[in-house]
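Ops channel
N.P.: pipeline sanity check, posting one input/output pair.
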């Protein structure tokens, strides 16, 4: 079978929204070549477990490579992707150069070539993320290992927004907590919460591809008994009360359901948000505070912001 490699030259800020556009268009497989990965300065106790080859990355910015089957609908699909990317400007998202190139590849070449970009990475004091095909051996007895198959997922779990979310879960999730993961994507945050001994996790995503990907990764990590995965639009019709709600999504989406998040949290509960760009930082903070939250922590990695907001203890 023939495949077309769609190469999009863009910015770090646009990685997640464009990745979502690509998946919604039906692409099989996604490679992210981010120049900042070569320069990322992790805390001293963390760091990549493997070396990156500079030749695999653009001179500046980001390359996203998506793989589409060569068929009679290809031209229409590419046009829809281009239009959706241009529409990101309406949300003040910097799409950078936004140059798109296309080339043809054979299925057997694509099926294995992308895997060279994905190796085990230690992202926090406890967590290491590794692809399912790697024979990774833990280096400490308290290390928590998340295995991911990103073939249909939304990244490899090492993007700054995901790392910020996992580090926050590591600090705040307590044994027996009930956790809600809004916009679960690959399921990595749900799996992290499960490994931190949360009592139960509800993972929601509107995209069926994400739901299926989360179900697969939950089973791979053997936490399917405590993670319930459902297709759902944000927190619509959700009635459970959570100790922690985590959402690694765009700032604009966070501001669509901050009031619902407040209502679904127990008094003293935490709302962990990530995926926030610098120029949306104040908007998100204002929205959370207007909903009744107290913002107790703001963290940054590269150009990305995460916020941790608390529902006051006396709330009912």
């Amino acid at each position: 079978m023939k495949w077309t490699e769609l190469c999009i030259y863009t910015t770090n800020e646009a990685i997640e929204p464009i990745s979502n556009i690509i998946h919604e268009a039906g692409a099989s497989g996604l490679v992210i070549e981010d120049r900042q990965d070569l320069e990322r300065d992790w805390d001293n106790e963390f760091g990549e477990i493997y070396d990156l080859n500079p030749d695999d990355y653009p001179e500046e910015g980001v390359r996203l490579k998506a793989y589409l089957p060569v068929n009679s609908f290809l031209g229409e699909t590419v046009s829809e992707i281009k239009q959706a990317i241009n529409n990101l400007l309406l949300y003040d998202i910097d799409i950078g150069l936004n140059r798109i190139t296309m080339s043809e590849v054979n299925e057997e070449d694509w099926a294995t070539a992308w895997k060279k970009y994905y190796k085990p990475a230690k992202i926090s004091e406890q967590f290491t993320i590794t692809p399912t095909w790697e024979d990774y051996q833990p280096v400490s007895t308290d290390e928590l290992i998340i295995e991911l198959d990103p073939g249909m997922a939304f990244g490899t779990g090492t993007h700054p927004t995901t790392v910020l979310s996992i580090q926050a879960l590591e600090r705040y999730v307590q044994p027996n907590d009930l956790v809600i993961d809004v916009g679960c994507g690959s399921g990595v945050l749900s799996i992290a919460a499960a490994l931190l001994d949360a009592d139960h996790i509800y993972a929601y995503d509107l995209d069926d591809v994400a739901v299926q990907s989360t179900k697969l990764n939950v089973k791979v990590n053997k936490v399917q008994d405590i993670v319930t995965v459902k297709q759902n639009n944000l927190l619509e019709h959700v009635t459970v009360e959570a100790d922690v709600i985590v959402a690694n999504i765009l700032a604009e989406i966070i501001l669509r359901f901050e009031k619902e998040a407040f209502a679904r949290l127990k008094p003293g509960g935490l709302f962990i948000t990530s995926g926030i760009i610098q120029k949306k930082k104040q908007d998100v903070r204002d929205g959370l505070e207007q909903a009744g939250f107290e913002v107790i922590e703001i963290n940054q990695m590269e150009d990305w912001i995460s916020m941790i907001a608390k529902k006051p203890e006396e709330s009912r």
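N.P.: looks fine end to end. Residues 2-117 form a domain with the Alpha-Beta Plaits fold (CATH 3.30.70.120).
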